[in-house]
């Protein structure tokens, strides 16, 4: 029953996502990745997607959800980053000539390849001064637990054997996702979303940084 309610909640959220604007979508193509067999697919097949999503409800009003995925990037990583809002004012700025307006506090949930839970907070440096520093609380699973963490596909196969389908998408979830992506594909067909090229081993298209800045989010690939 709990799994069923969770799936219904996921579908409700997906159906509440606002229509993606072309200016909030970046489609990229790695210069050194081959996709398909034909010359057209080699030149046109996207290998990178980034977008800013907004959920149209009271709880998440005005909160951007930034996603990106791609091939040929410098780091192979699956993670969720939660940036906390800036608080009004800066107590430390009044007491020092330096601008100590650092990045916001951050919670990072990392799945692969190094499973971890990280918390980054702005912390006052001990002493009589008024200087801030970024401190990290690190729970790295491979250092904490002497067990082998199964990879994603191994976990899915285990769930299939056990008859547990909570990690699999239902047809109504798939339909809700396609309702989000179909307008993007239509805009691509009209050439309203250009294909951005990027180098193998890079962070992806440079325009992604400007997309994050547009929505006041600093996304560091560390």
UniProtKB/TrEMBL annotation:
PANTHER family: GLUCOSE-6-PHOSPHATE 1-DEHYDROGENASE G6PD (PTHR23429), INACTIVE GLUCOSE-6-PHOSPHATE 1-DEHYDROGENASE 4, CHLOROPLASTIC (PTHR23429:SF4)
Single GO biological process annotation from the record: glucose metabolic process
Gene3D superfamilies: Dihydrodipicolinate Reductase, domain 2
Keyword tRNA processing found: no
Name of the featured protein: Glucose-6-phosphate dehydrogenase C-terminal domain-containing protein
Positions of transmembrane segments: none
Pfam families: G6PD_C
One MF annotation (Gene Ontology) recorded for this entry: glucose-6-phosphate dehydrogenase activity
All copies of domain Glucose-6-phosphate dehydrogenase C-terminal, residue ranges: 11-219
Keywords: Carbohydrate metabolism, NADP
Organism: Coffea canephora
């Amino acid at each position: 029953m709990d799994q069923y309610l969770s799936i219904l909640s996921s579908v409700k959220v997906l159906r509440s996502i606002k229509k993606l604007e072309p200016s909030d979508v970046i489609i990229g193509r790695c210069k050194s990745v081959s996709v398909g067999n034909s010359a057209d697919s080699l030149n046109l097949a996207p290998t990178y997607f980034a977008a800013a999503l907004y959920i149209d409800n009271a709880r998440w009003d005005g909160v951007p959800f930034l996603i990106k995925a791609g091939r040929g990037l410098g780091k192979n990583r699956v993670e969720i980053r939660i940036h906390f809002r800036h608080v009004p004012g800066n107590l430390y700025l009044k007491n020092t000539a330096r601008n100590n307006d650092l990045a916001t506090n951050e919670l990072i949930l990392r799945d692969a390849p190094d499973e971890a839970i990280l918390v980054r907070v702005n912390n006052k440096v001990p002493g009589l001064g008024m200087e801030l520093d970024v401190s990290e609380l690190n729970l790295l699973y491979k250092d904490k637990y002497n067990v082998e963490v199964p990879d994603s596909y191994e976990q899915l196969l285990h769930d299939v054997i056990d008859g547990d389908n909570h990690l699999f998408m239902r047809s109504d979830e798939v339909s809700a996702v396609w309702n989000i992506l179909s307008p993007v594909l239509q805009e691509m067909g009209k050439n309203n979303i250009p294909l951005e090229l990027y180098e193998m081993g890079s962070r992806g298209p440079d325009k992604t940084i400007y997309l994050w800045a547009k929505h006041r989010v600093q996304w560091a690939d560390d």
